[in-house]
């Protein structure tokens, strides 16, 4: 008799017949199992049949995927993928409109199955769909299903996008450019164009010739956020794939320009204001996919600064040296320069020292280190020209201070530029799972430069508050970095809002916050208190463990990665209330509340889990991806490894969910919880409990008479809400 682990108990359905309950031997060929099922219903020609899942995506079961079957799975006997592909291919070419519509509807659903897709593509099915689109005779639902099927089939990566014809591209671009077109057709057309751009260098050029900025702006002004998301995704794709030498070109009319030149487009007030007013400040909450696309747009925009950031100044270049002379002229009214060469040189040296350059004799040398390179000089010139009063005030204010307390403007501006590049990750590729966009960067045509101007004023203010000297330079920069990152974390909606947040984060406030956050580490260090802490720790750890397990029972929604199209794909995972089974399954949309276990068709017994791995040890982080898997994705990845040799892969939506799930799974397996969140919670809860107990003890009066029986110190009943 086969080992118990090789037997899977399932139910198999067939229309009009009672379901068969079977014990499937996983070592037995799938064709033999299908033959037995057909014999049970007296069906001949078993080679014309296959097994599919009855729930969820209803994928075909193959020899490669059969190991995913679990006990209790409901299957369905269906015609084989090859037979289904042949029938559908014949039906979509039939003359009957109703029959063709039903066939295309079924094809759109089946095309997501890789087994069916392979068979359909081998029968030249994609060419047939392309010709249907090129004919221009399909409209409405029929066209929408055709485009859906085409996109699903191409998404499997079986066929190269380079094989797509020019007439097909023009037809799809035509749907995008039409003023009135069905929403579902427009969505799929935008998604197809995006996939073309991302997957084919040659198609990028063809698409870019047929789509202009003005045509996409119209789709950003609609009330449908899905259409807006697809439109911004296409802009991002074209921007990402644009040749370096085409990104910086300028045009007289930005709305008529092609999308090969994206830098001038994104700098134009019209496009930026459309995104700000119709998307960011629209009447609807920003969904996760839209937030991701706005984040990508933000990253790609800032990445235009990379070239200047990595460009060293050439001390022999007179045009570049003239910029430094202009900074001096604006600050000190250079029209009154002395006529003698030596006197002028001496005055320049003095002025450059007052401007705060490190190299007083040749300040050009201060800009030879990259990053920030010439980007720092660009920022300084913008401040001097566009915010001249602020620039002159900062320079003159510091030049009149005592030497030991002067804030060196030049050195500070260069280091601040480097810091801002690090904070905003200039030059980094977008992270596939990140939604961290900042609305304020869409409120100004020169958002980067204005952000620098706000931060240089903050630096000058903080320098004065700290009464810093030259020796304190690095300390001041650390405080300024903390002020900026804390303010950005509050997601200010405008640059003025940012200024308000920074005003509330003075040096004294930063010290207060630091002290508060360190309190659990610095307080209560005497031996008796340390002993009390060690006694409390086990019960607090148990409290945290129970909270983590409760969160696993509530479950979490995870976004499927690797999906370049803008259809949101989600899956949900939660622990059973008895802590014995993990239930999971695909969802059509992000859930608003708890997902019932009945909707989660897949499960893993906790007893089968062998280990939990994180980061680069995860199987899905070892696989190649079309997008760069950067540090941020690695930090959110974890996998469950379970018997026999299977894995369930996760990428958490944020660091908090990552810590909750990895800690919860460790607690479930009886292992130590070691995340930063657990350590932070442990310190916080222990400190709170100790304060309550110490306060309780302080309130006990010392009696003169023999003392009564002392009461037990109160145990803090803590319910921690992580929601």
TrEMBL record:
GO terms for biological process: actin filament organization; apoptotic process; cell motility; phagocytosis. It comes from the Eukaryota. Residues 319-488 form the ELMO domain. The keyword Lipid biosynthesis does not apply. Pfam families: ELMO_ARM, ELMO_CED12, PH_12. One of its GO terms (cellular component) is membrane. PROSITE patterns: ELMO (PS51335). Keywords: Apoptosis, Cytoplasm, Membrane, Phagocytosis, Phosphoprotein, SH3-binding. It is found in: Cytoplasm; Membrane. The keyword Zinc does not apply. GO terms for molecular function: SH3 domain binding. Involved in cytoskeletal rearrangements required for phagocytosis of apoptotic cells and cell motility. Acts in association with DOCK1 and CRK. Was initially proposed to be required in complex with DOCK1 to activate Rac Rho small GTPases. May enhance the guanine nucleotide exchange factor (GEF) activity of DOCK1. PANTHER family: ENGULFMENT AND CELL MOTILITY, ENGULFMENT AND CELL MOTILITY PROTEIN 2. This is Engulfment and cell motility 2. It comes from Hucho hucho (huchen).
């Amino acid at each position: 008799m086969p080992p118990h682990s090789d037997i899977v108990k399932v139910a198999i359905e067939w229309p009009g017949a009672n379901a068969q309950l079977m014990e499937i031997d996983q070592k037995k060929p799938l064709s033999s199992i299908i033959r037995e099922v057909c014999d049970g219903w007296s069906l001949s020609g078993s080679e014309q049949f296959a097994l599919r899942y009855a729930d969820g995506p209803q994928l075909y079961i193959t020899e490669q995927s059969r190991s995913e079957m679990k006990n209790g799975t409901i299957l369905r006997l269906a015609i084989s993928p090859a037979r289904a592909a042949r029938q559908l291919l014949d039906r979509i070419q039939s003359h009957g409109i109703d029959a063709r519509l039903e066939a295309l509807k079924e094809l759109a659903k089946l095309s997501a199955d890789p087994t069916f897709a392979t068979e359909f593509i081998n029968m030249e099915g994609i060419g047939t769909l392309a010709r249907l689109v090129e004919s221009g005779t399909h409209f409405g639902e029929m066209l929408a299903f055709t485009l859906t099927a085409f996109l699903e089939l191409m998404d499997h990566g079986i066929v190269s996008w380079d094989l797509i014809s020019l007439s097909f591209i023009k037809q799809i671009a035509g749907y995008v450019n039409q003023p009135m077109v069905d929403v579902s057709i427009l969505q799929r057309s935008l998604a197809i164009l995006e996939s073309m751009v991302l997957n084919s260098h040659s198609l990028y050029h063809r698409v870019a010739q047929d789509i202009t900025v003005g045509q996409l702006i119209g789709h950003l002004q609609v009330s449908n956020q899905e259409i807006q998301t697809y439109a911004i995704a296409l802009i991002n794709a074209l921007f990402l794939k644009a040749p370096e030498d085409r990104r910086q070109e300028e045009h007289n009319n930005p709305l008529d320009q092609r999308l090969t030149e994206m830098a001038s487009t994104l700098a134009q007030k019209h496009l930026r204001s459309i995104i700000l007013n119709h998307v960011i400040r629209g009447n609807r909450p920003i969904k996760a996919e839209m937030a991701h696309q706005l984040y990508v747009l933000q990253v790609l925009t800032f990445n235009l600064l990379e070239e200047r950031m990595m460009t060293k100044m050439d001390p022999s270049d007179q045009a570049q040296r003239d910029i430094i002379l202009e900074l001096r002229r604006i600050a000190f009214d250079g029209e009154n320069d002395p006529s003698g060469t030596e006197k002028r040189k001496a005055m320049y040296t003095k002025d450059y020292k007052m401007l705060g350059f490190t190299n007083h004799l040749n300040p050009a040398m201060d800009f030879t280190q990259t990053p920030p390179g010439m980007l720092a000089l660009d920022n300084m010139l913008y401040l001097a020209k566009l915010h001249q009063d602020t620039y002159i005030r900062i320079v003159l204010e510091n030049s009149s201070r005592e030497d030991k307390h002067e804030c060196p403007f030049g050195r500070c501006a260069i280091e601040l530029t480097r810091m801002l590049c690090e904070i905003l990750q200039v030059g980094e590729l977008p992270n596939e799972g990140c939604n961290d966009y900042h609305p304020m960067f869409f409120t100004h045509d020169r958002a980067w430069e204005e952000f620098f101007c706000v931060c240089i004023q903050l630096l000058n203010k903080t320098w004065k508050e700290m009464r810093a000297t030259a020796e304190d330079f690095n300390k001041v920069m650390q405080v300024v970095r903390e002020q900026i990152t804390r303010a950005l974390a509050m997601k200010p909606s405008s640059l003025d809002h940012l200024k308000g947040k920074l005003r509330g984060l003075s040096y004294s406030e930063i010290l207060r916050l630091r002290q508060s956050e360190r309190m659990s580490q610095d307080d209560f260090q005497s031996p008796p208190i340390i002993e009390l802490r060690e006694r409390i720790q086990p019960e607090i750890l148990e409290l945290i463990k129970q909270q983590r397990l409760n969160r696993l029972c509530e479950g979490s929604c995870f976004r499927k990665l690797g999906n370049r199209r803008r259809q949101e794909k989600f899956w949900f995972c939660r622990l059973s209330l008895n802590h014995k089974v993990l239930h999971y399954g695909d969802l059509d949309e992000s859930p608003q509340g708890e997902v019932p276990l009945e909707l989660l068709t897949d499960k893993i017994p906790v007893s089968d889990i062998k280990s939990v791995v994180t980061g680069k040890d995860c199987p899905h982080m070892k696989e190649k991806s079309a997008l760069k898997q950067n540090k941020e994705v690695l930090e959110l990845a974890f996998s469950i490894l379970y018997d026999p040799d299977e894995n369930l892969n996760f990428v958490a939506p944020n660091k908090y969910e990552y810590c909750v799930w990895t800690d919860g799974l460790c607690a479930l397996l009886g292992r130590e919880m070691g995340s930063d969140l657990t350590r932070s919670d442990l310190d916080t809860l222990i400190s709170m409990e100790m304060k309550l107990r110490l306060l309780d003890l302080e309130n006990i009066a010392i009696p003169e008479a023999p003392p009564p029986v002392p009461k037990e110190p109160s145990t803090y009943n803590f319910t921690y809400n992580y929601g």
